[in-house]
Amino acid sequence: MGILLISARLPARGQLYLGKSLTDLRPQESGVQLVFGYDTVHAKEVMLNLPRTPFLSLPTLRQAIPNRTIGMAKCVKFDLPTKFFPAGSFELGKSLTKAYAFYDDAWWITRLNQSAGQLPANAFMPVNTSEHIPIGIHFNDGPVRCDKPGVNCRGFLEVYYSTVNDEDFFESLRPSTYEPLGTLTPDKDSTGKLPRLHAAVMEATKKLFQKKNATQPQEPPSLLVVGVWDRTGSGYTAPTKVYYSTDASNPGGPDPLEKACGVAGLTEKEYRDSLMFPIPNRTDISLANNDWVAQTTETMFGDWAEESLLQAERALRVKGMDRPTWLDQAFGGNSRLENSGFCWFRDSRF
Ligand SMILES: Cc1cc2nc3c(=O)[nH]c(=O)nc-3n(C[C@H](O)[C@H](O)[C@H](O)COP(=O)(O)OP(=O)(O)OC[C@H]3O[C@@H](n4cnc5c(N)ncnc54)[C@H](O)[C@@H]3O)c2cc1C
Question: How buried is residue 121: exposed, middle or buried, by Cβ count under 10 Å (0-12/13-18/19+)?
């Protein structure tokens, strides 16, 4: 549910509706009408926790937003200056995907005694295998259960987490771009993906087994679970932002924000202010989601959930709300957080 209904004066009268999709938002003279299919709800104020695709899919709201702001909202960019990302060190394919293989014998524990670390060292850039399946293992990431420490262990191993082109091996398990979760069990595995994945994992980990003088397991995983977040702009997307670079090493040359988005004269401040309240002079309609960020590639610090919180915080502050008592003043002294906002303590991002 990406919608937060706000009523500062009447918090006890809020209602929570789960599993409802917002299909339109009609700005009224006073407040807004939210449309959920055939149902409508009137709200005095609304903060939309919506990513790019669903936000742009609300027809009446879209009509009410200036074209210039729509141009900003449509803008997705990820510049890769080679000074920052050496050539070949970061590949952007069609999705951000995670894949977990369930093994009845959690061999990385029982045979290798390895519950930490990555393979390769930066698993986000996975190794390719002769099966043409990219493998990037996080040995720590996946629940494992043992009868006793190191004995009779079974569990999930994260075998892939990346944005590279996986030749549809993992991506194709997703039912649709609106259903990021995909699973594969042996009874559904008509093309033998589980044994192929096992062969690829064994190829990638061969040296680890040799080092420990351990035998590689024969049994393929009994379950493969993937989460596929689209990067092409359809359905459930991976965080899609604007990372622009004015550095000379950027392929295609320096790419200031206005050029990156095709919006003349655009600055980070205008982007931030316009997307926070997409209809001019209507602070009763605000946006808060980690998609609405425009910054240089050089200053990016990751696609973290704090982006949504920061935008929500800025909007609430503009709307005149007081700093919540639980927001510790000490945050103001933390340079990392200061750099990214926490607006009750500093104003420079407005
Ligand atoms: C693979 C992956 C790994 C990540 N790892 C990390 C991490 O380690 N640490 C971290 O901090 N962040 C991580 N992130 C980013 C983090 O997930 C996001 O920043 C965070 O989920 C944003 O939270 P949110 O609630 O603001 O928005 P979202 O998670 O985008 O939630 C938006 C909600 O809106 C709902 N919605 C969409 N359309 C409609 C509609 N029309 N009507 C009603 N509801 C709608 C969606 O179902 C969704 O529930 C990761 C993201 C991905 C994809």
Answer: exposed
Cα 341 from Cα 350, distance rounded (Å): 10
Give the count of beta carbons closer than 10 Å to the beta carbon of residue 206: 11
C-alpha closest to that of 294 among 253, 260, 262, 249: 260
Residue range 3-75+247-340, CATH number: 3.50.50
Rounded-to-integer distance, Cα 227 and Cα 195, Å = 20
Distance of alpha carbon 111 from alpha carbon 201, whole angstroms: 14
Q: Where are the domains of the chain?
A: 3-75+247-340, 95-230
Take residue 290 and report the two structure tokens written for it: 């980690």
Look up residue 113 and give its amino acid.
Answer: N
CA 105 to centroid of ligand 1, rounded, Å: 33
Q: Cα angle at 22 between 237 and 324, to 5 degrees?
A: 85
- The residue contributing the CA closest to ligand 1 atom 53 is 238
Whether the CB-CB separation of 219 and 102 falls below 8 Å is answered with no
Cα(234) to centroid of ligand 1, in Å? 14
Q: Pick the residue whose CA is nearest to atom 38 on ligand 1.
A: 54
Q: How far is the CA of 71 from the centre of ligand 1 (A)?
A: 22
What tens digit of pLDDT does each residue of 74-130 get?
A: 999 999 999 999 988 888 999 999 999 999 999 999 999 999 999 999 999 999 999
Ligand 1 atom with the smallest distance to the CA of 229 is 53
Task: Tell me the pLDDT tens digit for each residue of 336-346.
Answer: 344 344 555 44
Q: Exposed e or buried b for every residue in 310-345, given b needs 16+ CB within 10 A?
A: bbbbbbbeeeeeeeeeeeeeeeeeeeebeebbbbbb
What is the pTM (predicted TM-score) of this model? 0.85
